[in-house]
Predict the structure.
Amino acid sequence: MNVIEIDNVKKTLGNFTLDIPHLAIKEGYITGFIGQNGSGKTTTLKLIMNLLKLDGGQIKVFGKDVATESKQIHEQIGFVGEPTGYMTEATLEQTKQMIAPFYKTWDDALFNKYVKAFQLDTSKKIKELSQGQNKQAALIMALSHRPKLILLDEATANLDPVIRAQILDILMEHMQSEEVSVFYSTHITSDLDKASDYVVMMNNGKVVLYEDKETLDSKYLIIKGPKKALNDTLEKELIGIQKNAFGFEGLARLSENMAKTLGNELICEKANIEDIMIFTQRGSRK
Amino acid sequence: MSTTTLLIRKELMYLFRNLKFTWVTTLILVLVFAVVYPGANLVACIIGPYMLVYGVMAHEEQSHSDVLNYTLPVSRRELCRSKYLLGMIYTLVVAIGVLGILAIGMQLAPTRYEMFRVLGTFNVLYILIGGALTYTALIIPIIYKFGCIKMRMIMALTYGVVFGISFSVTNILKEVIPQVSEDINFSLIGGCTLTIGIIAYVISYVISLNILKNKEYK
Amino acid sequence: MDIIISNQSATPLYLQISEQMKHLIVTGELTAGDMLPSIRGLAKDLKVSIITTKKAYEELEEGGFIETLPGKGSYVSTVNLDILKEAQISKIEESLHDIIESAKKIGLSKAELKERIELLYEEE
């Protein structure tokens, strides 16, 4: 089951064009959305939330069209954007009083549990909270109505590692129910290493990679070796090849054919998500 | 509670609990204008709703909390409806308040407020409400389309007009009324102003609905 | 139940998990009928993807070590563990065949091979 279905979507903003022929986000998993700044992650999330209007194509969430049924869709979405958008002069407690009634599934006990977990002072004004606390408050508001889909746009950016780990931990806890899906964008690849089941990589408004974590962990390797070992078959399979005076290196997605051609002079290293991003970026520049 | 009601509740809660500066300055300005000069009553009644509507929207725009409205489970139509209902609520409250001040004024200084007595309570009320609705009808679509800052620039041109009209009309009425009180049908003036106000408000609502339907939050 | 996985190891994560669980089952730490942690719970605790734990459990199920009841969870099979052990032993014998063949090819004697095996066994 797909919680989000993006079909033939096009959106132009100034010089930038988002072009996604097809992207389906699976229900019940954490999908990480990665890419350089300006690659289209925020635009995509805003289109899903109906904050931006599509130039072409269609986006469906829970099977409903975002262009016409956003109200029903939003009831089941917990969204944390950048900026978080909560009323700056209100306290978290007051914010809850104003916003909670909009959601039929609001759970006060859950709200209190998260406030305690993050140790937030609900009597402080939102503008008085630190950046990290602001994000935590936004996350609490997003999670407390038990949404089926959690959308986060750079929710962990600019946060220190301790708070980031806390946030990811709470997200993973939410995943214990199979109906909850998380789709979050980040440019911090180590977050994805820790918490993601699928990874979507964007570059220049296009989706350049969509893999499950297990495949990313096991099949993507960095191949290094002397230039003479770089034959045509190998060169075709490698992504983002870099050659210098000392040899070459490239990214490979291991297939049966490839594994056979690997000789002893080649070094194969596991590629983490950051590596995959860098090599893919390099590859697309040509 | 319906979504529209929840939106109205949200704004009123935020305005009165957290935007104290906005409604206190509005209150003071309205009182000042309502008291200082008889003709300024209309100005007071226009400024009241304007400052309250503008105050909230400007704050939301600057603090980027307007995005929250677009991510809540509310339709654009409900957002628009709540805004216009709030405008009406502010208008009615300010109008009745100004009328109350007038009533007191008429007791304390009957000669100064003579023309209002002649106009009649209801007609005065209709003019106040009509004027406020017309002005509010102008600003809301402009804010939706161009944002608060541009709206202020555009409307700054009209401030002079509003003051001018209020004072000249009052002066005219002051001269004219004692002489021709039987000839002029004040109910007509009152009724017309109110009708114009209501029509302007409705047209404005339809325009805002269209603007809001396609509005993007970049 | 101790399951320690390494991101640096060459072995895929799901395999590390399934192998360690197999070990626990074969040595009797997990007995027939024991309920295993949920795919999601395990993923959260080990800090790996749900896909990984899912695959690990699929591996275990294919090998006959566990059974999954939809809606209830995964349990250690009541299948005779001796039979499973036998299956593992056959696999080891297959690998041993390959090792012995490679050793003969390069002229490694039985004694030398035995020595190396003993050294490595102590190391692990």
